[in-house]
Amino acid sequence: MLSVFYKEINSFFSSLIGYLVIGVFLISIGLFMWVFADTSVLDYNFATMDQLFSIAPLVFLFLIPSITMRTFAEEKAKGTIELLYTKPLTTYQIIFGKFMANFTLVIFAIIPTLIYYFSVYQLGSPVGNLDSGAIIGSYIGLFFLSGAFVSIGMFASALTNNQIIAFILGAFLCFFFHWAFLYIARMPVFVTYFDLFIQKLGISYHYNNISKGLVDSRDIVYFLSVIYIFIYATVTVMENRK
Amino acid sequence: MSVIVKGLTKQFDNQKAVNQLSFEAHPGQILGFLGPNGAGKTTTMKMICCYIEPTEGTAEIEGYDIRLSPLMVRRQIGYLPEHNPLYEEMYVKEFLQFVASIHKIDNKIARISDVIEMTGLGKEQNKIIGTLSKGYRQRVGLAQAILHDPKVLILDEPTSGLDMNQLVDIRSLIRELGKEKTVIFSSHIMQEVQALCDRVVIINDGILVADESIEKLSSRMAANQIIHVEFAQKNISSVIFSHIKGLSDVVIENGQFIFTSDKDSDIRKSIFDTAVSNGLTMLEMRQDKANVEDIFRKLTKSVPHA
User: Which domain holds residue A39?
Assistant: First the structure.
């Protein structure tokens, strides 16, 4: 598993992909947080990081499928998957190694935003006047959200050997699991009896819960389940070869 | 021991790519796995390497069953897939290190430089795989297959698309490896198999059509004797030979008689006796060995339907 993990990480950072992902994430988040007048903390008059945590899922919606799209699609298109499969590795080892590598890259992109935290912390009046509990919770939420997106994106990549299809499908599935349930729940048929249940199926409900600083085991279990289900589905797809 | 294939069958939709195939391969022996394109060679090799699952039957590699313990099987095998897929963006050494770490090889650095030496990759060892020429890529493919010193080597058309010099190099490497390992080597070129292998397994349409040593195969198929004879006298009528039993054809070409016998009859003695009784002086008598290429064509041309 570790050998696959190192290989993937190496390929991210020996090509442009790794730097591009981190750069694009930080620039887009930075623009929203510090530059764009509508959302800038500097014009907001409150010391918060809400902008980061509300924009990040949107950026990840595009960024994570673009990391994960090559995971299996490229190996299948180039035939190198045969090389991996005929080595003494289990499908789980291959998939988990790749999952950890993709996930690590996303975490690398998130880590530098801690600087934003210290900046906002210093800007508060008095210094340090911000809801650190909620921010810690939000980071935990973002951590799990990216894990869920990575597993969804990898599942999409396992389904095809075309990277573009993998990207579009991955982005759609991430969108669907993040937001769609929130809006489906608001349809008149479901309101009053089923709306809360349907909302709970979506990622955003749990993400917002954790973001409040309320790290509930139920939300964590939800995220771990989503990650597990999609990894399991990926394993099933990848083992079902002729 | 080594590789024992038992009734291996692979069904794709409504077509049997491999049909009840059984053969064995032993250490110290290079087995040529031969068949026209689309005969099921690659499918068979993929099944032996646990890349695809057989529909029926099984195979044993060094005592491990491909269905029951695929991980152990993969540890015993060095596999060079057809088309030789490689991670093009990786460096040669980086790639070999990756493969070595999968196999958990103890003395990685030393083993990698040994293998680079063996495969003649020395000059190219610091390059990116994508920039290598076809011959060198093939060497990288071979290097990753032999890196963990496997007992069984399965090479799917290792020499396709190489030029003469590269061919000779790769062949001699395979011959060297075949001295202690079990090598199964697929090809659709008969001459190559003739030059390299001790035994041949020929399949056609997924069915085994021959499994024997090269010499046996040639002699079995050489049942039709072709005999060239040159006489000192000119203007001999071919009618005087017509009484020979088992003779099916006589042609005169450039003053030489070419006799063709029926299956299973040796007509050399009768030709000689006839020549003597007619007072002819024989300058040369020579029997043509049936070309292995012809045998291959003969075996695989008729499409057997079971």
Answer: 2-239
